[in-house]
Amino acid sequence: MDLDQGPVRSQWGKQIEFVLTMIGYAVGLGNVWRFPYLCFKNGGGAFLIPYTLSLILLGIPLFALECAFGQYGGKGPLSIWSINPTFKGLGVSMVVASVFVFIYYDVIIAWGLRFLVASFTSDLPWIKCHDCSCLLYDAKNLTEEIVEGLKYNNSIGQNCTDLSLNSTADSPSELYYYKEILHDSGSIQESGDVLWPLLLCNLFAFIVIFLVLLKGIETLGKVVYFTATFPYVLLTILLIRCAMLDGAYDGVLYYLTPKWDRLSDATAWSDAAVQIFFSLSCCMGGLVAMSSYNKFNNNIIRDAFVVPIVNCMTSFYAGFVVFSTLGYMAKIKGVPIEKVTAGGPGLAFIVYPEAIGSMPVSTLWAILFFFMLCILGFSTQFSAAETIMTSIIDEFPKFFNTRKRQTIFRIAVCLMGFILGIPMVTQGGSHLLNLVDEAVLGFPLLLIGLFEYIVIIYLYGFNKFSQDINAMLGRNPFIYFKATWIVISPVLLLAVVVFKAYQMEDFHPGWVGLLYYLIVVFTMMWVPILYFHYSLKHGLWDIMKPKQSWINRRNLSELNKADKTSEVNDKNTLFINEAPGDKDKLSYVNTAFDDDISKPHDLKDAEMGNGNVTGNGSLAKSADDRKDSANEFSRL
C-alpha cells in the first residue's frame, strides 16, 4: 500500500508555531496601508458590511480549502497533485506567482529599511523643505508680493524663478520619498541609474531571509514568535500615542462613520472581495506549503477560522492608528481629512512620516513605525520564500537529500531574488514594481482560486474531500463549507473576475500593456501546458482520477493510532518492570488504552513469572508485536 509519504518531512515543533507563521504570512504591509484607505474610499463604517461578508463567504472557505488540502497531502504545492495529476500546472502557477511576489516584496522592505536608517537622527530629513516645489506647502494668506520675495529670498537658499501664487506645492515628506528614496524618473520608460542605498538594503533583506530560513521551518517556527507578535506591540504603542493627538477623535469618527449610499456601488463590494482574497495570501502556494508541515490530525478547520479573523481584526485595528494620525494632520493643516488621505505606499511612506515629523520626540516614533513596517514585511516574506524553497525540495527529494545541498539551494533562491530585483531598485523601478504587483495580484490569483475549486470540489468531488477531512479530524466539514465550497465561493470568484475584466483600462504606452499580459500569461500558461502533456501521455479519463496513493493517505490516521498504541504499551512494559508488586495499578495502566478490556491475563502471566516481565513474557511480546505491526504498516 502506497501512502505517498516520500522522505520524512519536518514538522512544526508546536502547533502555535504554525498559527503564528500563518498570521505573519497573512498580516503584512497591506493591512497598514490598503485596508484603511479602502475603508475611507468606500463609505467608512459601511465598508465593514461587504468586508465582513466577503470574509465569511470567500476568505475563510478558500483559506480552509487550501490549508486542509496541504495538510492532507503533506507536500508542497508542486508535489501535492496526486489528487489530479493533470492539474499539476496549477501548482507551478502558484509557485511562479510566489516568485514574482518574492522579488518585488523584498524591494518594498528595502524602502522601509532605507527609511529606518534615515530615522536615526535628531532632525528627521523629511520634515524640512529642501526644494522649490515645497516652499509654498502649508503656507497661508499668501500674496503676490510674498511669493515674489520667496523666489530669491527663502530658507533653502535657491532661486525659485518658476514659483507663482498658483503653483502646486508638494509636501517635504512626498519630495523626500520620490526624490531622495526613489529618485523617481517619473515613468517606467526611463529606468535611470541603480540606486545603491536601496540595492544594499535589498541585499541585507535577502541575507536576513536566508539566515532565518537556513534550516527551513525549524528556524522559521522560532522566529515567528517575535515577527508575528511584536508588530501588535508597536501598533498598540502607536495607537496610544496617536489617540492623544489633537484631532484624533475626528479622524476615528471619519473612519467609522458609515456612508450607506456607497453600498449601492458595485466597486465597494468588488474592493472588499479583492482585499479579503489578497490579504489572506491565498492561491500563492504558501498556505498549502505551511499546512503540509502539520501533523496529519491537526484541527485545521479551527486554524482556518482563527487566522483569517485575526488578519481582518488586525486591518481594522491598524485603521484606528492611521486615521487618528490623519485626523491630527487635518487639524494642524486646517483642511478636510480627505485632503490628506492617500492610498497604497503613499499612506505609509508619505502621510505617516509627515505626521510623525510633527510629533514630540519624532525620532523615536519614526524608528518604531518603520521598524514595525519592516517586521510586517519580513513576516510575510519569510513564508513566501519558504514556499518556493519547499516546493522545489519536495519535487526533487533525491537530489536535495543532504543538508549541504539544501543550504546551497536556499542561497541560490535568495541570490536569484536579489538579482531579478535589481531593475526595481533603479530610478524607474517603482513603476515596474507597481506593474508587476498589479499583474500578479490580478487575474492569475483569481483564476488559480477558481481552478482550485474546480479540481478539488467538482472533479475530485466534495464528498471525497469530506472523507479526506474526516480521516484527519474524525468528522466531516459542516454545512457552512458545503454551501460555500460548492456554490457561493466559486460564484463570487467568477463574479470578481468578470467585474475586474470589465474595469480594465488601456495601458500607455502599448508595450507596458504587453508586459502586463506577458506576466499574466507566463504565470497561468503552466495549467494548460501540463494538462495536455499528462493527458496525451496517459489518457484523459484515466489521469483525471486521483492516484491510489492519495486515497490511501486516509489510512495515516490509523497509522498514527498504531504508533501511539505501541508507544503506550512500551511505557506500560517499562512501568511493570519498575513496580511489579502493585497489581491494581498495573491492571489499570495496562488496560486503560486497550481496545479489548479483556486482556488483563497478560498481567497474570507476568505475575506468574516471578513478578517480572522478561523479553519472553507475554506483555513484553505483545508490545513488541504491536510495535512491529506499526513499523510494518509504515513501510507499506
UniProtKB/TrEMBL annotation:
Gene Ontology molecular-function annotations: amino acid:sodium symporter activity; metal ion binding
**Bias kind Basic and acidic residues: ranges:** 622-636
Which keywords belong to this entry? Disulfide bond, Glycoprotein, Membrane, Metal-binding, Sodium, Symport, Transmembrane, Transmembrane helix, Transport
Q: How does it sit in the membrane?
A: Multi-pass membrane protein
Question: Where along the chain is Na(+) bound?
Answer: G24, A26, V27, N31, S279, N311, L376
NCBIfam families assigned to the protein according to its UniProt record, in alphabetical order = Na_transp
Q: What is its main location?
A: membrane
Q: List GO terms (cellular component aspect).
A: plasma membrane
* Signal sequence segment: none
Instruction: Write out the similarity annotation.
Output: Belongs to the sodium:neurotransmitter symporter (SNF) (TC 2.A.22) family.
Query: What is the name of this protein?
Result: Transporter
What's a single GO BP term from this record?
amino acid import across plasma membrane
Q: Which residues cross the membrane?
A: 18-36, 48-69, 90-113, 194-214, 223-249, 269-293, 305-330, 364-386, 407-427, 439-462, 483-502, 514-534
Fetch the InterPro entries from UniProt.
Na/ntran_symport, SNS_sf
Instruction: Please verify whether the record's keywords include Glycoprotein.
Output: yes
Q: What are the disulfide bonds? A: C129-C134
The record's subcellular location field reads: Membrane
Ranges for region Disordered: 600-636
